[in-house]
């Protein structure tokens, strides 16, 4: 039997402190359900006393049944020189009606005197009193020892005495927090070990990433005996973020044989990460370990060659274990193999020596030189190959369009309208649409015109729209537009490049529509 | 005396394998000079045999004098069953005319047999022969033992024998590579220690980040005795990237007292990171340890409160040590203190109890609700405060504008033109401009009109232009445009939000111009 490590997710609480993060009530519900279905042990979701949104969240989530996870409300020890039972903030935590409560308290003497402004003794009372009160309300209490490592390094006796106060008051687990995120793996290992030797209770670890070592620090704490890891699912959090659970879980479970989440759910890790990023309105870092789009992407020609000869030769795990894919990235340094594997998807009869392959390689170089980058736009590259090989019958011709946009000071809206003519199998369709801005106007006009011919365009929509200025210099620089689209079943990405943002957007939009049409045709 | 740790930067070589990275010759020169002035010991810059660009790079860089860094060319051991002196790839390395050469060779028996397809013995010959040849040409040779940790775990005797072959042939340093990036800090520590005990030579560490632990792994190797750390300056590299030197250097030097770069250069770390990101056409991850925009940004109200009471209470180091700044991020969870410190910059007489402060807080909430996010657009927030406090005299009124854009199939360019009227101190200026796309056209028209009145607008330009779709759904969704601008002395960021991309762009552009004008006025 492998040792169980509890996974304690704080995406909705500590993650919400991350810059640029702002969860709506609906976002919080969706993320909770996703984490529950992935099988994390605890979901720390906020403080019902601190704001109305968190209060509504707990009301709503308590009407739903979670399969795997325990909900946790988070709050601090009572105010100094008072009584937990009469402390409004402490009592507010009970409103959440969660089985477990995280109580954070000070473990660093400097913080007690200089930030709280109270005595070392009163801080111990605050911890004991608050936890006892929660235990009397039949709550499972998890004690977060804030700044524990800094505190321990400064005054080990006092830091340990705060843990003692928590244990004596009935805390179920002691969580050692590296709140400032500057600790090193060797320190974390040693100090965790001492705490476990001193107390017989469950110990958790809560790391921040200010030294870029939150994942390693969490793992070294587990190696020293900790059996709970706190973090956020994508590593989001204040400053440099929290320990990234989507990295820690596979590191512990696949590499070191610990039991973190149900084994059959590991393969859902990548999907869960992408879903949570989507809900959080974040672009998931492509290079994120295990779940990133490029976590198993090979660019160097030699590596690509190695992977083809011997799988695993340039990969630390099989990407399927976490539901991710191996990718061969096209570029000037990637060598032929990557591109050939994509060409073969379109026409399996072609080899690396076929003249068509050479032509596509040359075309790719030319397009890259113009600013195209197919690494993030594989649907567009697929179309480039098909068109070059003559394996593409155009679904429509965009004959012409015109956009007019007008804005007057003092008037609320800026109006944009587009007129368009498309030709489908010799039949012309001319139409016009108004939109919130020129891209929207032309998008609406194109769809309106094409839906006359292709009904299946109704169920596809854009997921993301990104613009990158290539030369970085000014508004006349070349821009690259990347569009992510979905029809609910599949996601695909397309690219457009131009000095004109409208032209680039239309290019990516047309590619996306063409890809959708060809995909549906081939699946029939 | 603190122990010297050599910093070996491979941004231009291993970093170039990163997805989305494509350095021009000029980029490579600029990055080399920046790394040299920061004081890294080695700059690994490419393979002159592999492509023309690298060959030109070495020709050009050799005409310049580096102050601190040694240049390194990188290549592999000779082909199997041949002779190094007659191997074209090996000889090509000499063209670079660098004082040092990195030679990588196989240390994992599985790779020798299954990827190289040769015998274990011939691999040892390849290492010895190639290194001896380079030493005979008076090169300092650094041996990169590819997959060393995986190799050691699989067959320690063989892995060590590859190092022995390198040492006996005259390699100056042995670099242990975790090529697949899946190793753990405790393994790295143990194995590095064994290598150092076995050989008396300099040992380096080269980690990849597939387990999210490249920084910690590099540091644990140094703790075990390694005295060279290889990485890329921003952690860029294939898959999940390489060990991030901008994190490792301050971790080692500030926290553990090692000597990595000249002490007085540490304060240039943040500027160097941002400069290299700019040249690499990368958005520097805001949460990157030490150098990220948010590395010392405080959002949670409690943390902000703590920092104000006791500096260092929520920071692992003083941000000035690495040339970064403390920031208080505005948001619904940041509490009043952050916003007050920004308001006080505009009007030092205001306090947290001033009615104006309350009004600005309410305004901020309303704007955030509309989709504004001032975290990345402090110049816009500054304008919001000034305008609300009446501390702003408008420099111009944008009376109205109209944009026309037309595209015909088969014609090369899509033309956009904008006409505009601005009013400055009662004087009207009406003008028009053509542009590559609507944003460029309106940008040019606004500047053309305003430069009549304000000459100082000539020296400012846009650095970056980002678009984020807020609701993610379709082209009618709200978009947030962020514009980064500079006048060569200062950088600032502004924001515009609208369902219309043109309107949002114009909003951000107008803010940027206003900020520039007010800044120049106040500096006079």
UniProtKB/TrEMBL annotation, chains A, B:
<dbReference type="InterPro" id="IPR002034">
    <property type="entry name" value="AIPM/Hcit_synth_CS"/>
</dbReference>
<comment type="pathway">
    <text>Amino-acid biosynthesis; L-isoleucine biosynthesis; 2-oxobutanoate from pyruvate: step 1/3.</text>
</comment>
<dbReference type="InterPro" id="IPR054691">
    <property type="entry name" value="LeuA/HCS_post-cat"/>
</dbReference>
<dbReference type="Pfam" id="PF00682">
    <property type="entry name" value="HMGL-like"/>
</dbReference>
<keyword id="KW-0808">Transferase</keyword>
<dbReference type="GO" id="GO:0009098">
    <property type="term" value="P:L-leucine biosynthetic process"/>
</dbReference>
<keyword id="KW-0028">Amino-acid biosynthesis</keyword>
<dbReference type="InterPro" id="IPR000891">
    <property type="entry name" value="PYR_CT"/>
</dbReference>
<dbReference type="GO" id="GO:0009097">
    <property type="term" value="P:isoleucine biosynthetic process"/>
</dbReference>
<dbReference type="InterPro" id="IPR013709">
    <property type="entry name" value="2-isopropylmalate_synth_dimer"/>
</dbReference>
<comment type="similarity">
    <text>Belongs to the alpha-IPM synthase/homocitrate synthase family.</text>
</comment>
<keyword id="KW-0100">Branched-chain amino acid biosynthesis</keyword>
<dbReference type="InterPro" id="IPR036230">
    <property type="entry name" value="LeuA_allosteric_dom_sf"/>
</dbReference>
<dbReference type="Pfam" id="PF08502">
    <property type="entry name" value="LeuA_dimer"/>
</dbReference>
<dbReference type="GO" id="GO:0003852">
    <property type="term" value="F:2-isopropylmalate synthase activity"/>
</dbReference>
<keyword id="KW-0412">Isoleucine biosynthesis</keyword>
<dbReference type="Pfam" id="PF22617">
    <property type="entry name" value="HCS_D2"/>
</dbReference>
<feature type="domain" description="Pyruvate carboxyltransferase">
    <location>
        <begin position="5"/>
        <end position="267"/>
    </location>
</feature>
<dbReference type="InterPro" id="IPR013785">
    <property type="entry name" value="Aldolase_TIM"/>
</dbReference>
<dbReference type="GO" id="GO:0043714">
    <property type="term" value="F:(R)-citramalate synthase activity"/>
</dbReference>
<dbReference type="InterPro" id="IPR005675">
    <property type="entry name" value="Citramal_synthase"/>
</dbReference>
<protein>
    <recommendedName>
        <fullName>Citramalate synthase</fullName>
        <ecNumber>2.3.3.21</ecNumber>
    </recommendedName>
</protein>
